[in-house]
Amino acid sequence: xxxxxxxxxxxxxxxxxxxFNLLTGLNQKIGNFPGITVDKKIGYCRLSQGQTTExxxxxxxxxxxxxxxxxxxxxxxxxxxxxxxxxxxxxxxADSTNLRRNLLLYxxxxxxxxxxxxxxxxxxxxxxxxxxxxxxxxxxxxGIQVVTVSARKGDGLTELKQAIAQMxxxxxQNKGVAVAELAPTAIEAIKKEIDTDNDYYxxxxxxxxxxxxxxxxxxxxxxxxxxxxxxxxTVKLQGQETVARYKHLSTILSDVVVDTGAARxxxxxxxxDSILTHRIWGFIIxxxxxxxxxxxxxxxxSYPMDLIEExxxxxxxxxxxxxxxxxxxxxxxxxxVAGLGGIVIFIPQIAILFxxxxxxxxxxxxxxxxxMMDKVMxxxxxxxxxxxxxxxxxxxxxxxxxxxxxxxSWKDRIITIMVTPxxxxxxxxxxxxxxxSLVVPxxxxxxxxxxxxxxxxxxxxxSITAAILVALVFKFILKAKEKSYFxxxxxxxxxxxxxxxxxxxxxKSKTFVMEAGKVIIAISIVLWVMSSYGxxxxxxxxxxxxxxxxxxxTDSVQLASLERDRAAEKxxxxxxxxxxxxxxxxxxxxxxxxxxxxxxxxxxxxxxxxVGTMATIYSVDSVDGEGGELRLRDKxxxxxxxxxxxxxxxxxxxxxxxxxxxxxxxxxxxxxxxYRETKSWKWPIIQLVYMTVMAYVAALIAYQLLK
Amino acid sequence: xxxxxxNPGQKGIIVSFTDxxxxxxxxxxxxxxxxxxEVERYAPLGDPIAIRVAGYQLCLRKSxxxxxxxx
Lengths: 707, 71
Prior knowledge:
The complex is a heterodimer of chains A (about 700) and B (about 70).
Chain A: E1 4-10, H1 16-24, E2 28-32, E3 39-46, E4 52-57, H2 69-79, E5 89-95, H3 99-111, E6 116-121, H4 123-128, E7 131-133, H5 135-142, E8 145-148, H6 157-165, H7 184-194, H8 199-208, H9 217-229, H10 234-253, E9 257-259, H11 267-276, H12 281-322, H13 327-344, H14 347-363, H15 365-379, H16 387-392, H17 397-403, H18 410-419, H19 429-439, E10 444-445, E11 449-450, H20 451-477, E12 488-490, H21 498-532, H22 536-552, H23 556-573, H24 575-582, H25 584-587, H26 594-602, H27 609-617, H28 628-638, H29 651-663, H30 668-678, H31 682-706
Parallel strand pairs in A: 1-4, 1-5, 5-6, 6-8
Antiparallel strand pairs in A: 2-3, 3-4, 7-9, 10-11
Helix pairs in contact in A: 3-10, 7-8, 7-9, 12-13, 12-14, 13-21, 14-17, 14-21, 17-30, 18-20, 19-20, 19-28, 19-29, 20-29, 21-30, 22-23, 23-24, 24-26, 26-27, 29-31, 30-31
Chain B: E1 11-17, H1 20-28, E2 36-42, E3 49-53, E4 56-60, H2 62-65, E5 68-70
Antiparallel strand pairs in B: 1-2, 1-5, 2-3, 3-4
C-alpha cells in the first residue's frame, strides 16, 4: 500500500509521461478505468524518507471541460472522492515555454480544493528561448510549492520528490477567480443538493454531471431541475469562466515571466516545416518514411520471428519427448503452447511498429502527417491520424489497431479500427503466394512485369480500396458521439527520447501479450480439441486400420508415408473435418470442396494456418524443407473433384479463395485486440460478421463470373 | 474579417468568435480576444491551416478558423 496517491495532470506535449517514467521507472502497471477505453497508467515511486507514493498519469488535457473521451477521465477522477484513483495530491505539469495557457488547467484544478504542486517542466528549453520565470514569486502568488524540472535531462527530480514528501493534506493554494459570481443562484442550489461547500465543484457538477456515474438517478434529475430553474447556459458560462481565468492569470504572471528572445524561437521548426509539409517534398518524404516503416516491420522482424518459431517448435518437441505421453501433455503442448507461440510471434512486429511510431510522435513529425493528410482522409470518414494504422495494417493489424488509440474522435477511431483488418497483412502473403503460383503462369508481360508479381500487387490494391470504401459506408452509418474537433497543437521538432521509445516498445508488447493472450489461448485450445478429436469409434477405427498395416509392412519408406496418411485421415474424421464436410454445400458455390472447408475452419484462428492445414490434408510432410512448397503445389494442383474428375484448383476457385482470404476476419488476435481496444464485444462481432459476409459475397461473385 | 481569409504570413488581432461552443475550445488553447495570430502555412491540400498564437503553433480546419473574427 502506498502512503500517498499522486495524480499527474497537465496539457498534452508537456512532458508529463516522460516525468511519469522518470519517477516510476519500470515499476508501473496499466489498469483500466471501468467502462472506458482509456488506459490507467499507475506507477510507484519511493520518496526520500522511505515513503512510497502511487502515481497515476492522467490523460493530457487543456481544460477540465473535455474534448474527447480520454480527456473526460481527468474530471471524473478528480470529482469523485470515493474513486479508487482519487489523489491526495495533484502534481500539475506545465510547459515553461507556454506558461499562461498551461496555468489555465492549473487554476481550474486548484479551485477544486485538492492539495497541489506545480512543476515547471522544460526549464532548459525555456532558458534557451530566453524566457525566465521567477519561481519564488509565482509560488508566493499561487500559495503552493513550485518546482523547476527538465524531465528530458532528468534535472530537478530530487527536488520534486522532496516537494511531494512535504505536501500537507490541506490545500494551501490561494483563491483565484470568484467562481460563484458566474452563476450564483444555481451554484447555491447545487451546493445544498449534493452537500458540498466548494463553489467550483458545484459549478463543474452543473456542467458535467452527465459524465459522473456516481450520482444516483434521483440526484441527476434534481441537478437537471436546478439547471432548468436557473437558466444555466453551459456553453456561455464556460466561455465566461475561461475569460475570467485568463484575466486572473495575467495578473498572476505579470513580472513573473520575462520573455527576452522571442524572435529566434521557432526558426528550426519553421525551416523543417517548410520542407516536411511542402506540397511536393512533404508527400515524397512522407511516402518514403511509410515505405521505411513497412519495410522495417517486414525485414527487421523476420529474424526474431524465425527464432521465436524455432524456439516453440523446439519446446513442443522437447516436451513431447520428456513429458509423459497423454491427453494432458498434448493439450498443453499442441493447444496451449501452440497458442502461446501464435501470440509471442507477433511481439517483434508490435515492438518495431511502436518504436517507429513513438519516434515519429516524439519528434513532432506525426502531428505534421495528420496536418497533411487530414483533408483526404476526412472524405472517407477517417482522420489524418488514421494513416499510420492503415499503413501498419500491411504488416499486421494487431499493433496497428492499438496505435489507433491516439485518434481523439470516437467515430474516426472506430472506423479506423473497423477497416484496418481489411488491409492485406503479412499473414495473407503465404496464402496469396501459394495460390498465385498454382494458377497464374510465371510469365512476363510487356517485357518486364512479372504476371505473378502483378497479381500479388493487385491483391494489395483490392484490399486497400475495400478498406477505404467500407470506411465510407461506416461514415454514413455511425453517429458521432461527440463533435469532432481538429484544433491541435503542432509541437516544435525535437530529438526523440530513446528511453521513452524503449518504454513504449515494452509496454505495448506486454499489454498485447497480457490482454489479447487470454482470448487467443482459449480459442487455440478449442481449435486443438476440434481438430484432434472426433466421434469415438471413428478414431479408434483409424488407429486399428493403421496398426494392422504397420504390423504387416516392413518397408521403412512406406512406414513414413503411413504416418502422414494416418494424420490426414484423422483430421478428415475429427470434429473440424466433420464441420468442413458439413459446410461443403455452403462453400460449393464458391468453388471449394470440403478439404478447403477444413482449412477455412482452422484459418479462423490465424489465416496463415491455411498452408499448414492444406499440407496436412494433402499429406505433405513438410512445406518448410527444400522444394517443400513445390511438392504441396503439385499435390494441390493435381487434386480432382471425385464426381466430375475436373481439377479443383482452377483459376476461378483460386481467385475466389484469395478474395475470401483478403476480406475474411480470420485472425483471433485481431478479434481479441478489437475487443480490448473498444472494451465491448459489439465491435469485434460487427467486424467479424461484415467481413465474413463481404468475403463470401466477393468470392461467390468472382467464382461464378470466372468459372 | 475571418481568420480563414488570411494568406500565409499575414497577421491579425482576434476580435470575437461567431460560434460560442467553438470559442470555448479555442480560448482554452490560447486563442483569446486581443491575441495576435499569424497564419503560418496551409496544408499541402489547402486545409487545415497552421497558425501561430500565444507563443506556439496550432493547426485547425478552415471551417474552425472561419469562426475567428480578426482585424
